Amino acid sequence: MKNSIKPPGCTNLKLRQLTRMVTRHYDGYIAKTGLKNTQYALLSHVVRLGPIQPVDLARLMRMDASTLTRNLQPLATQGLLEIGAGKDARSRLVEATEAGHTKQAEGQRAWKMAQTSLNERLGLERVAALHDLLDACIESLDSHPDEPSGK
After folding, report:
1. What whole-number distance in Å separates Cα of residue 83 and Cα of residue 55?
2. Which helix (H) or strand (E) holds 144?
3. Minimal CA–CA distance to 127: which of 54, 135, 7?
4. Torsion of CA 92, 83, 64, 140, to 10 degrees
5. Which residues pair with 95 in a beta bridge?
6. CA-to-CA distance for 140 and 134, rounded, in angstroms?
7. Which of 40, 22, 20 is nearest to 30 (CA)?
8. CA Rg, the chain, in Å?
9. Taking the model in full, what pTM does it have?
10. Residue 81 forms beta bridges with which residues?
C-alpha cells in the first residue's frame, strides 16, 4: 500500500522559522546576562563536561570544529573560559574559569525563566511531544552517515 501522506511545504523552512522564533524568545532572557544564547549553551557544556578537548566538545554539541573555535574566543577573551595545553603539544583543553562558572549560573537562571515561559505558551504536553519528535529525528538522521553532507 502506497503512503498517501505528503507534508505541505519545505521542512527546512518550517524548522528555520520555528528555530528563529524560539531563539528570539530565549535571547530575550539570556541577553540580560550579557551572553548570547549560543554563548550560554557553549559555556554550559564546558561547565558540565570540562576540562574537555575542543574536538570532543564540537562532536558532543554537533558543531563544526571551526565554528566552535570562533565561538570559544569571545568567552576566553571575557575570562569565562581558559583554553590551555592538553596531554601533548598538539592538543588543547577548554575549561571554565571561576568567572565562567558564575556567569553560567546566572545564565541558567535566565534560561529557566525562558524555558518556563515557553512551556506556558506552548503547553507542557506539546513541548514534551516536540522533544520526543526532535530526538527521534536526530537519531534517524544520525543513523544514516552515508547521506550527502553538502561538503
Report:
1. 13
2. none
3. 135
4. 80
5. 82
6. 10
7. 40
8. 18
9. 0.81
10. 96
- Per the document, the length of the chain is 151
DSSP state of 138: H
43 close to 34: Cβ distance less than 8 angstroms: no
CA distance 105 to 59: 24
DSSP of 4-50, one letter per residue?
Answer: -----S-HHHHHHHHHHHHHHHHHHHHGGGT--HHHHHHHHHHHHH-
> What is the dotted CATH code of the domain comprising 24-138?
1.10.10.10
Q: What is the pLDDT of residues 101-149, one digit of tens each?
A: 999 999 999 999 999 999 999 999 999 999 999 999 989 988 876 656 5
**Cβ–Cβ < 8 Å for 107, 48:** no
> Rounded CA gap, 106 and 100, in Å?
10
CA dihedral 18, 23, 28, 30 (to 10 degrees): 150
Sorted by sequence, the CB contacts under 8 Å of residue 61 that are 6+ apart come out as 41, 42, 45, 68
How is residue 147 written as a grid cell? Answer: 547521506
